[in-house]
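In this supplementary section we document a worked example of the pipeline. Step one takes a protein sequence of length 696 as its only input; no multiple sequence alignment statistics are reported here. Step two produces a three-dimensional model, which step three serialises into structure tokens for compact storage. The input and output of this example are shown verbatim.
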Amino acid sequence: MTDVGWQTRGPWRIQIVPGRDRPGFAETLGRLPFLVEKEADSLARPGRHRVDRLLLPCGDATLDAVVKSYGAQAAWRDRVALRNGSKAERAFRTAIALRDAGVGTPAPIAVVERWEGPRLRDSRLVSVYVPRLTSFRDELERIYSDAPRCAPLMDLLHTVADAIRALHDAGYLHYDLGNQNIGLQRDPDPPAAPWQVFFLDLNRARHTPDPSPAQRGADLARIDLPSDFRRVFHAMYHHGYSPPPEFAAAEQRARAAFARHTALRPLRHPLREARIRHAQADTPPPLRGREIWIWDDRSAQAIPAYTARDRHRLLPAANVTAALRGFARKGISIHRHERRLRAHSFQSPVPFDGAIGLTLEAEPATWSRQLAFLDQLQGTQKLPLLLRLYHHQNPDAWHWTLDQALNLHQRGHSVALALVQDRRALREPKGWRQMVTLAFDRAHTFADFFEIGHAINRCKWGVWDFRNYARLLDPVRSCLIEHPDARITGPAAIDFEPHALAALLELLPPDISFHALSHHLYVDRRGAPENRQARYDTVAKCALLRAFARAHRFTSDKPIITEVNWPLLGTGPWSPVTSPYETLDPRQNDPSVDEDTYAAFMTRYLLLTLASGHISRVYWWRLAARGFGLVDDTDPAAWRPRPAFHALQSLLATLNGATFSKKLTAPENAYALEFTRPDASALTVRWTRDSAPVFS
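The serialised model returned by step three reads:
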């Protein structure tokens, strides 16, 4: 580290970094308190310390500088400062060392101090002003509040994790590595320029050659991130691998200790904390807890910010009590209906025309290509289609989606619209009302139905408290008054969770009439559609969903499945069942399947759910997607139809005009369904749990 000596100017002692000293500059620094009071621009709210921007004469030039003025401290800290250096001096020397090691921090200029005997009366650190400097804290808040997208969030986390790793590898621990002490800067042109990281407030930093995993973990304990983002951040720090146990244990201990220290701060410093609270009274609180919501374009879904343990901690007990009330009121009726319906599975004729639907993604850049593949897939038929309106998008996107919905209707398609909420829909309901009203006003004359909400029982989609679903229905109420012929479905829960469905249906407003129950029915994302979850296979689950619809007197007792697919092997973060950042550790209990298995499972799922007689329609999610679609859109210039595309194409052509007539006797783990063609001839489809369906 560069050795810098002291200069004395009157009561002041001054250190100036080599290369910055100019004639008269030390005298200028001796007038620093006066200049700060008269000419500086504050960069932060006044508190115990001050941070100001100041133009300092330096020879023939002027330095654009930042001056951090440290507040008075206890006498015992002055004794420590006599031995180890003041906060300003320690920060100054550490900044020089870090820059020598190639680690980012604002360039130090000088440190200025005034001592009276053993008491430190004034200490200031002077650094070069970094234009457009923001912080990790502020950029996270901007993403959470204004641009909740996964890709920029992951880019930001990766940049900061790599910078901290470089800091530690250089042999330095920060000891106060909070989000606010990680400065960030990027060039405005191009807009996606990489971030540069500047470590701030270095007075506590210590030179620690080759810090241990435990020391590294403890130093990261003040990083403020939701628990699942923190897990990802730690993996990024470890170059893609999960951290070693000693790192994780030390980080958790230090995090818990810092949380206790923070909680007791108002007791240690009541006046100072009161002043801070008063100064921030008019500032909106940062988004925390349930309010954090992030969208991932790659997997086309919201991503969880918290680990499962923390998600459960944030869920309200009211969800459980609503489920208990729901089962208490309707449980006997549901059980009675379910028993009858299961016995009548595959007992009634089921026309297959119009029963298989597909979801398209209303994306302008790929829309014409989607329509071209749709035409290939359906042949002369017109598949029922589902489009989604996402609240996290803007009104221009809503209008564009509704334009395409109308065009598809004019081309002869039955078109349904799913209205997808985010957390902001509950935090700022005006925007949600705007989207709902727009959808009904523009599409009520042709929309087959409006699905209200999306995966309501998954908190990552913004609804933590099931009672909030009624708030999403508020604007629907007035829309139905104005457009009484419009049909709505819901509550659009996902997966097989009867307790969640019971709670949601118990909380439905009695003055809003649902046409049908819509549901996103996955096979627990694991294995074949014939697999059982507890005592329920897919057909039994469909019967139970129908029993719920009957017990709650939906207009149509046959539910609509509005989302289902299987995740595909090898698609990384584009898969709907992986993390937005995929670590290099071997995956455990991976539910993904290969493309041929996906095709077989899809065909068997459609045959079972629809021929059972319990489901009126299934919408496959979706036509094109890298991680789960019928078409692989990995290469923007050369989309590739997967085996599932050809399997569905064949299924649609084979069953065109056909009606399911009966289930045939088959050996154990084998299935046989008979269909009647329009010409009255019979068509049989057979499969086993280890094979794809074959028609004869």
